Design the sequence.
């Protein structure tokens, strides 16, 4: 979805479906190499919330796809409305739209002062699947604690072509992407992820929504 046509159409449809639901609150966070907090505070949807411009702005302007930044921002947004004494009656949903595999650094597996893409991929798995602690974000555990159900909308063919690629790096990045998506959604029966080899840290979460 290089021009964002599918994402714009999908977000517009979501807005149009929800705009008359008075009890629903929505937030919108875009991401590429970093995040763009378009509507970071949950508010009521309407004919112009999010506006067409906000939807366009959420698509990102660069080709990078940094899941870590996106999931960090999502946890922060839900934490802002979560209360420890919540009765559990609230329905919280994260819809994760992406048109590409995890690709946090411009270029192909470029080494930086902070490591290579594959180093970042290893870190993403750890931050997603390991228990939340001072040293780990524990994305899945935090979503689980706050009662957030997660769904992923995967656009484009980079996921399947990446998994089937002869290029070791591309295959590694696609595998990590699908491991993380399977862990945060718990949709282990999906044909997109059911055959993906799971990192041992993610096995607890593979079918836990």
Sequence:
């Amino acid at each position: 979805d290089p021009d964002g046509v599918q994402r714009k159409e999908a977000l517009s449809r979501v807005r149009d479906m929800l705009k008359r639901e008075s009890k629903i609150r929505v937030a919108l966070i875009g991401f590429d190499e970093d995040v763009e907090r378009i509507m970071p505070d949950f508010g009521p949807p309407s004919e112009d919330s999010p506006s067409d411009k906000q939807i366009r702005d959420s698509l990102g302007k660069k080709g990078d796809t940094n899941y870590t930044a996106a999931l960090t921002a999502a946890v922060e947004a839900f934490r802002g409305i979560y209360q420890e004494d919540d009765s559990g009656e609230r329905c919280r949903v994260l819809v994760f739209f992406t048109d590409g595999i995890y690709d946090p650094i411009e270029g192909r597996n470029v080494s930086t002062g902070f490591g290579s893409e594959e180093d970042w991929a290893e870190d993403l798995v750890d931050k997603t699947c390991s228990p939340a602690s001072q040293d780990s974000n524990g994305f899945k555990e935090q979503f689980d604690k706050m009662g957030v159900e997660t769904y992923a909308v995967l656009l484009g063919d980079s996921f399947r072509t990446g998994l089937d690629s002869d290029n070791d790096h591309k295959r590694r990045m696609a595998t990590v992407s699908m491991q993380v998506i399977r862990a945060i959604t718990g949709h282990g029966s999906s044909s997109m992820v059911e055959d993906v080899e799971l990192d041992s840290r993610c096995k607890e979460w593979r079918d836990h929504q």
